[in-house]
């Protein structure tokens, strides 16, 4: 955890696992140049797939931490063993919650947590509420707080989830979770200012950093936007200063 999180308790993760469900996309056709750009831009960690770690892990080695993004599996012990053999710094699983499959998701999260604890491998749980009869508004602060807390109670070392949209509501999420909560970026935002404001606001509310994907690797300057986000997260830049430097 200390390799990934800086002394300020924050982290900048660039999510590069989209090829596993989107296939090739603009900005993520050839992974190597993008990995190089975000590492050069100051990403504390890249979060990516088995295939990309095998192909491009050497680019990050000694420069950025690597988080292995993996689907839920019936054999998480084998998954954790593979992660350890690759030398990654953490494992990340995607936990869809709020829907009919929630019970199975929780069982998988628990087994993954136990497997990680046995090996001393940090676990990042992406708690992803979906709209359902049980969860009419997945962005509600009580919903985000509930599932972030559940992820921590299940043993996750840090949580990735939605930003609730404003500092007051996200402050409740961060305060009620005993492990760092980092925000996902979701769909590409309209402007760089929008991206950086979300980063700044989440930090002001007590968030632990970001795990942004498309808003970084689909940017015309992925190195520059990574550096701008890093400046806001770790160096205390204002949104305006980050935009000037970008």
List keywords for this structure.
globular; alpha/beta; 246 residues; eight-stranded parallel barrel; TIM Barrel
Concise description?
With 246 residues, the protein is an alpha/beta fold. It has eleven helices and eight strands.
Count of DSSP strands: 8
Write down the CATH topology: TIM Barrel
Amount of helix: 40-55%
Tell me the distance between the termini: 29 Å
Q: Biggest sheet: strands, sense, closure?
A: 8 strands, parallel, barrel
Uncertain residue segments: none
Overall, the morphology is: globular
Going across the major beta sheet, what is the strand order? 1-2-3-4-5-6-7-8
What would you report as the Rg, rounded to the nearest angstrom?
17 Å
CATH superfamily: Aldolase class I
CATH architecture label? Alpha-Beta Barrel
Q: SSE order in H/E notation?
A: EHHEHEHEHEHEHEHEHHH
Helical element count?
A: 11
Q: Pairing-aware structural class of the strands and helices?
A: alpha/beta
Overall CATH class = Alpha Beta
Note the beta-strand portion. Answer: 15-25%
């Amino acid at each position: 955890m200390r390799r990934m999180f800086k002394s300020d308790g924050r982290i900048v993760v660039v999510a590069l696992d989209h090829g596993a469900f989107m296939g090739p996309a603009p900005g993520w056709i050839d992974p190597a140049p993008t990995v190089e750009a975000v590492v050069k831009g100051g990403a504390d960690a890249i979060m990516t797939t088995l295939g990309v770690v095998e192909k491009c892990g050497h680019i990050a080695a000694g420069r950025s931490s690597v988080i292995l993004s993996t689907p839920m599996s019936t054999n998480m012990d084998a998954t954790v063993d593979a992660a350890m053999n690759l030398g990654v710094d953490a494992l990340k699983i995607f936990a869809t919650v709020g829907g009919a499959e929630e019970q199975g998701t929780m069982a998988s999260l628990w087994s993954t947590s136990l497997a990680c604890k046995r090996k001393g491998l940090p676990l990042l749980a992406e708690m992803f509420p979906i709209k359902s009869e049980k969860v009419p508004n997945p962005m509600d602060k009580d919903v985000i707080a509930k599932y972030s807390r559940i992820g921590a109670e299940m043993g996750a070392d840090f949580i990735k989830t939605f930003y609730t949209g404003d500092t007051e509501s996200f402050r409740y999420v961060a305060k009620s979770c005993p492990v760092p909560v980092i925000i996902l970026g979701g769909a590409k935002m309209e402007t760089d200012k929008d991206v950086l404001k979300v980063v700044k606001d989440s930090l002001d509310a007590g968030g632990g950093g970001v795990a942004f994907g498309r808003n970084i690797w689909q940017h015309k300057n992925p190195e520059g936007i990574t550096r701008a986000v890093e400046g806001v997260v770790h160096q205390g830049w204002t949104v305006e200063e980050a935009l000037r430097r970008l």
